[in-house]
Amino acid sequence: MNRRKADAERTRETILDAAETTFLAQGVSRTTLAHIAQAAGVTRGAIYWHFEDKAALFDALLERVRIPLDEIVDHAVQQLGTTPVECLRDIAQRSLAGICHDLPLQRAATIVLHRCEKLEDDHPRISMITRLSEHAEARVEQLFEQVQQQGQLRADLTPASARRQFHGFLIGTCFDWLQDTHQYSLDADRGSIVETLMRGLLLEKSH
């Protein structure tokens, strides 16, 4: 990489760091490119050199971090000798651990869940953090299908509804904890949280 290209990449990362800090401090909607330029110590022209507008900058910020749900799900499924229920427990545990220990992911999730009060337009890229990928959704639903086939899924649930409730419970937990990460240790409690989740989805004899 030549020096000019390296300098441009450093400037781009500086802008993204400033955007993250500013979005966290005052929210996405109330942040302007002028605010970000001031925080980054660059001109608005420098921002426009790298990003078409604030939405494009927001896209790039989310691209930098994402919870690796595809990898988490695939890792759980590939574990030999592991039951579908244990796979699901592992997925939930690893997802919560990611929010606890991956600080860039934690900041990005905080922006998406708590600092996007109302974007000027609907922003499809927000789903990168708050939703499972189609691949992960299909994998998780397949696991719940296997749980159902083994007679362990609650009778009033379908694999699709179980998958939605599984995901919604985890997102709700993250939403609550990210409001104040000092209120309790999510890392210390995640085992019992996941057990509560699974008990709500399985027949009582399958816990």
TrEMBL record:
Domain HTH tetR-type: 9-69
PROSITE patterns: HTH_TETR_1, HTH_TETR_2
Coiled coil: none
InterPro entries, per database record: DNA-bd_HTH_TetR-type_CS, Homeodomain-like_sf, HTH-type_TetR-like_transc_reg, HTH_TetR, Tet_transcr_reg_TetR-rel_C_sf, Tscrpt_reg_MAATS_C
Keyword annotations from UniProtKB, A to Z: DNA-binding, Repressor, Transcription, Transcription regulation
UniProt KW DNA-binding keyword: yes
Protein name: TetR family transcriptional regulator
Source organism of this protein record: Vreelandella janggokensis
